[in-house]
């Protein structure tokens, strides 16, 4: 059986090896079964790459806003579209998490299985992110850098971080 090696497969395999070592390492063929569970057959769902690209773009837009705030004359021609971009991309999230596309299912993703175990909590985290991005858009519309600065904290904490803390692998 051909398998494309990926970081998450190695991680899953070594996690299993560790588990086997701890439990006495029976070596009765169970390893193969565990490996199959850890690395699903077939291609990864396209949504995994789509959501990672989408989050990367969200990260870029958020960074663009923060960088403007570090300048003497923050440019609202950068801030305003970046805020709208974050809002628009957060609204796409519900379509980008097909069932089972988690790290625990063996895919190369930082999305934790708890996303699908707690769908209401995850939906709420998306909603909170969207709401915070709307506040950011409203702040951008005032043209006041200090208003935007305040929303950077709000969006970062109640949007991005609140969701990452619960639903994304903690690798910081
Ligand atoms: C509702 C939950 C949620 C919200 C809100 C959220 N994120 Fe994420 N983010 C995730 C998850 C889950 C992943 C892991 C995706 C994957 O690996 O498949 C992620 C991944 C990322 C990544 C890594 C992308 C990559 O793979 O290279 C960045 C950067 C990121 N988020 C930035 C942000 C920023 C900035 C915000 C706020 C403006 C934000 N996120 C809001 C859940 C969220």
From TrEMBL:
Keyword terms, alphabetized: Signal
MF (Gene Ontology): electron transfer activity; heme binding; iron ion binding
GO annotation (BP), single: electron transport chain
Region (Disordered): 27-46
Keyword flag Signal: yes
Amino acid composition bias (Low complexity), ranges on this chain: 36-45
Record keyword Acetylation present: no
PROSITE patterns according to UniProt: CYTCII, PROKAR_LIPOPROTEIN
Protein's name in the database: Cytochrome C
Organism expressing this protein natively: Erythrobacter longus
